[in-house]
Amino acid sequence: MTIAVLEDNDDRIAAMEDGLADKFPFFNRRYFRSAPEALAWLDEHISEVVCLALDHDLEPPDHPPGFEPGTGRDVADALAGRPASCPIVIHTSNAPAAVGMEMVLIDAGWSVTRVLPYADLSWIREAWLPAVRDAIVQTAPVPLPAR
Length: 147
Known about the structure:
With 147 residues, this protein is an alpha/beta fold. The chain has one domain (2-59, 68-136): Response regulator (Rossmann fold). The chain has five helices and five strands. A five-stranded parallel sheet has the order 2-1-3-4-5, with helices on both faces.
């Protein structure tokens, strides 16, 4: 089972990995820096995902010239055409984009939580990790191991 994350910022990815490895060592973790990369993986592995976290604005630091990383909305739109299969946590400071992503996913039957980034990386441990945990616990078919 996998927690999948669409995020392009190295510092955020490192903080997310630290928190997820600490709180959820029993889950695999996958990070994607672009919407096309995430969508290609999700096409084959969506059934393995216990929680999907989506950022909106993507500008991977090492992308080749002309590469279009897409946005979290691209992923949300693609998922809206599929049956809901896992909870989604949206984490973006782009409030209008977050609302649009949330609405398209909720309208399609997905369980969605939004977290607004704040205070550099503090929000990851204070708000994002609890939101991921709550999303997983609310949809888990069996109790998660105690930690």
